[in-house]
Amino acid sequence: MISVHEVTGDYDVIAIGKFEDTDDMNDQIKALITDPDINQSNTSIVLNTITENEQFELVVNESN
């Protein structure tokens, strides 16, 4: 998982993950739904990414 968000609406949490392949994704989903704290899950698969934010380094000029 690359991020987990607590949300309002029909779901309590949205978890976003990136996986090597569908087998890896299925293994992760199976691990989640066997967790006793998780009552149910709903999976959506991204078919095409339009844009994705990447982390960047913030450069700070220190002047004394």
Descriptive overview:
The chain has 64 residues and is an alpha+beta fold. It has one domain. Helix content is 19%, strand content 12%. The protein has one helix at residues 22-33; strands at 3-6, 13-16. A two-stranded antiparallel sheet has the order 1-2. The longest helix is centred in the middle third of the chain and has 12 residues, at 22-33.
Strand and helix layout:
Layout: E1 3-6, E2 13-16, H1 22-33
Antiparallel strand pairs: 1-2
Structural class: alpha+beta
Give the strand content: 5-15%
Span from first to last CA? 41 Å
Helical run tally: 1
Poorly predicted ranges: none
General shape: extended
- The Cα radius of gyration reads 17 Å
State the strand order across the main sheet: 1-2
Q: Give the number of domains.
A: 1
**Which sequence of SSEs, written as H and E, runs from N to C?**
EEH
Largest sheet properties? 2 strands, antiparallel
The tally of beta strands, per DSSP, is 2
Question: Overall pLDDT, averaged?
Answer: 89
Fraction of residues in helix: 10-25%
Could you provide a short overview of the structure?
The chain is of the alpha+beta class and 64 residues long.
Question: What keywords describe this structure?
Answer:
64 residues; alpha+beta; two-stranded antiparallel ribbon; 2 strands; 12% strand; extended
